[in-house]
Amino acid sequence: MTTENRWLLPEGIDELLPERAAQLEALRRQLLDQCATWGYRYVVPPLVEFTDSLLVGLGADLDLVTCKFTDRLSGRMLGVRADITPQTARMDAHSLAETGVTRLCYAGSTLLSAPQSAVSDRAPIQLGAELFGSTSIEADSEIITLLLSMLEGAGVSAIPTLDIGHIGIYDALFSGAGLDAETESQIFDALQRKSMPDIARLSASLPQAVADKLNCLATLHGAPEVLARARSAFAAEPVVMAALDDLDAVLAQVQAAFPNLSLYVDLTELRGFRYHTGLVFAVYLEGRGTAVAKGGRYDNIGAVFGRDRPATGFAIDLKALMESSAAAPSTAAPIIAPQSDDPALREKVAMLRAAGSVVVIDVAPGVDIDGAARLVKAGAEWVVEGSS
């Protein structure tokens, strides 16, 4: 790298200058405070962990995007987290080991070895909430309702679109169909990409019953009415019927809370890391091609840490949400204080800062800040003078 471009950042890595950094921090605080009012306790998982803890049992897709390096102290492999959700599952199962329902929330940086789309960020800041210890559909409804309430509180002007599906439908139709691992992987990939040419190619080589299921499932996305079509098509599949019941129940509760919400039911919804086991969802905002939040049920992760706990939750891409949010930091004009050893001035500055005012010391006398007031001495007292 030449001296002329040493300031360049790696592709997909950005920085936040003061205005945007302040906006993001204001949004982070607001959303975490809202989580607290719902009973979610804040945790701070580590940025790096041993990979045999960070990635165990989570599949090749998460492994592929995790940045890894050797720990010089132990000689073991470390990984920089690409997703915080599995870390909270470890904390619930091992570090906390509580009984009953546990609600946790978090916010922190993540790092991906490569972007997951042409426009995605390699260093997203995740903010999320996870609910452990309940298999009830009410837990799934709470998580989605909390997410939508947080977006509403963030001042998102566009009506969000909730894209919702259920991994259990795919698993019921194909996991027990006697397919080899390569064929099942190709089916999963084709459905995930909604590639009808690939689906047609695969169907030609599948047993007729499996091909019929694949071709039918590939069409089941759109308005909530697709649930009725799915019931008609898969009436002989009890696991599919149970998954559809779950979707109906969640949609009824969510629509009652958010009657103007835009809904998109996608029974081929297989996005994200493959640790989900049930209901899955994503939230999209108008003008953005990628989801600002994703989530769903993941009941199997805790087992690798010694406690098989049901779980459901979501993660928000905080930087993506910030672009559509009205949340803003305080824009109060600062107060300029002169350099002085006067104890009365130091006391006045401390008092103003304690009250929340921004006070800056004039280390470069004569330089003004737009809209700033000044601390001036009036007799024996220091007073704030002038502001716009």
Task: Give me a quick take on this structure.
This protein has 388 residues and is of the alpha+beta class. It has helices at 18-37, 51-54, 60-65, 85-96, 137-153, 167-175, 181-193, 196-205, 208-217, 226-233, 238-257, 318-322, 343-354; strands at residues 41-42, 48-50, 67-70, 77-80, 102-109, 125-132, 161-166, 221-222, 262-266, 279-284, 293-297, 311-317, 335-337, 359-361, 373-378, 381-385.
Report the top-level CATH class of one domain: Alpha Beta
Mean pLDDT: 90
Secondary structure class reads alpha+beta
Arrangement of strands in the largest sheet: 1-5-6-12-11-10-7-9-8
CATH architecture of one domain: 2-Layer Sandwich
CATH topology of one domain: BirA Bifunctional Protein, domain 2
Largest sheet: 9 strands, mixed
Count of strand segments: 16
The rough form would be described as elongated
Which consecutive residue ranges, at least 5 long each, have pLDDT under 50?
none
What is the CA-based Rg, rounded?
Answer: 26 Å
Strand content: 15-25%
Order of helix and strand elements from N to C terminus: HEEHHEEHEEHEHHHHEHHEEEEHEHEEE
Q: What is the terminal separation in angstroms? A: 46 Å
Instruction: State the helicity in percent bands.
Output: 25-40%
Can you tell me the CATH superfamily of one domain? Bira Bifunctional Protein, Domain 2
Compute the number of helices. Answer: 13
Notes on the structure:
This protein is α+β, with helices and mostly antiparallel strands and 388 residues long. Among the domains are: 14-160 and 285-331, Bira Bifunctional Protein, Domain 2 (BirA Bifunctional Protein, domain 2); 335-385, no CATH class. The chain has 13 helices and 16 strands. It has helices spanning 18-37, 51-54, 60-65, 85-96, 137-153, 167-175, 181-193, 196-205, 208-217, 226-233, 238-257, 318-322, 343-354; strands spanning 41-42, 48-50, 67-70, 77-80, 102-109, 125-132, 161-166, 221-222, 262-266, 279-284, 293-297, 311-317, 335-337, 359-361, 373-378, 381-385. The strands form 3 sheets. The chain has a 9-stranded mixed sheet, sandwiched between helices. A 4-stranded mixed sheet has the order 14-13-15-16, covered by helices on one side. It has a 3-stranded antiparallel sheet with strand order 2-4-3. A hairpin with a 6-residue loop joins β3 and β4 (77-80). The chain starts with 17 loop residues before the first helix and ends with a strand. 33% of the residues are buried. The model has no long low-confidence stretch (mean pLDDT 90).
